[in-house]
Structures are given as structure tokens and as C-alpha cells.
């Protein structure tokens, strides 16, 4: 069936591009590995670059945080954080494909085609800016360097589960096991995230107190 051929091309191309890169993977190799005609690549994707683009974005598509929920001024902080982390970790449900997607991104950084910069501009930066908005609202702060660092640290909790999956399984086996593993991670990231935000709120309060005491002397 046509859709089966397209899906085989996507799965095969993800594996080959992740392991070999764009330049070293030929259209003939892709077609033979996917058991389709070479013309199928142009039929479904236009050309090899179109297939690479689809492989880069489609498996992760729909997995971004629901930024409308994250930035909703009526949403409670725990709800906003859950929306952020749930979307961030959704790709982990893809299993082995998630690891191939991450490997493809590492390769794209080393052998750039422009898609990584596009993902930063259209995906990663809006996510970061949305999280910064949440923190500014909760901390009653402008987007100063402390808010920017806090947003980076919060995102880093989730990023490590992607880039450090092999390390986690080596040093703490079992944390990624089971059908509810991603849900368990979301729960603890929300808990730890709230603690980090509370710590920053406490730091700000202590700093304000010190400034007031200094002004009173």
C-alpha cells in the first residue's frame, strides 16, 4: 500500500540518516533498504532533502508542549509545568525511534543542513520564551538573567532524559522501564521544578530583605 511505502521510507531513512548522515546516504540505498522504487522518494517527498526534512521533523511532530496551556494566565503553576514537561517528554514514548531522532540531531549539529537552526528558531526558542513568561508571571519579575537561568535549568531536566538516556540506563537501570515510565518522569519533574522555582523565589525574597536592611542603615 502507498502509505506503507511512505512509512517504510520514513523509518528506514531515520535509521540510515542517523547513522550515516545526509551526504553519505544515497537515494538508491534508501530505496533498497525500504524495499521501494527510487521514484517513491520523489513521489512522496520531492527529493532526498525533502525526505530528510520529513524524517527530521515528522517523528517529533505533535510532541511539543501545548504552549497555549503553558502560557495561559489562568493556569496554575503546577498545571503549566505539567503541560511543558508532558510535551517535552512525549517523544520518549516512541522508544527506539526517539533515540534515533536524538542521534540525528547530534549529527545535524556536526553536519548542518540548516534544519537544526530552524528547529531552534521555530520550536526550541518559543518553548523557552513561553516558559520564561510563566516564570515571570509567577515570580512577578521581568525576564532577567535569573529567570533565564531558571528556565534553562528547568528545560535541562527534561533534555537530559533525551540526550542522557543511555547514561541513565547504565547508572540507574529500570528508571525508563514500564509503560508508565514517561508519566512517572513527568510527575517528578513537576515536583522538582516547583522546588526549583520556590528556591528562586526564596533567593529573591532574601535579596530584597538584604537590600531593605542595607538601605535602613
Please describe what this structure looks like:
- By secondary structure, this protein is mainly alpha-helical.
- The chain folds into two domains: 2-56, Homeodomain-like (Arc Repressor Mutant, subunit A), CATH 1.10.10; 61-216, Tetracycline Repressor, domain 2 (Orthogonal Bundle).
- It contains eleven helices and no strands.
- The protein has helices spanning 2-20, 27-34, 39-45, 48-57, 67-70, 77-89, 96-110, 115-139, 145-163, 165-171, 181-216.
- It is elongated, with a radius of gyration of 21 Å.
- It starts with a helix and ends with a helix.
- The mean pLDDT is 91.
Write the layout of secondary structure elements.
Blueprint: H1 2-20, H2 27-34, H3 39-45, H4 48-57, H5 67-70, H6 77-89, H7 96-110, H8 115-139, H9 145-163, H10 165-171, H11 181-216
Helix pairs in contact: 1-2, 1-4, 1-7, 3-4, 6-8, 6-11, 8-9, 9-11
Alpha carbon gyration radius: 21 Å
Strands, count: 0
Which series of helices and strands comes N to C?
HHHHHHHHHHH
Oligomer: single chain
What is the terminal-to-terminal distance? 80 Å
Secondary structural class? mainly alpha
Q: Specify the overall morphology.
A: elongated
- Provide the CATH architecture of the largest domain: Orthogonal Bundle
What is the number of domains? Answer: 2
Keywords:
217 residues, mainly alpha, Arc Repressor Mutant, subunit A, Tetracycline Repressor, domain 2, 11 helices, elongated
Describe the structure in brief.
This protein has 217 residues and is mostly helical. Helices cover 75% and strands 0% of the residues.
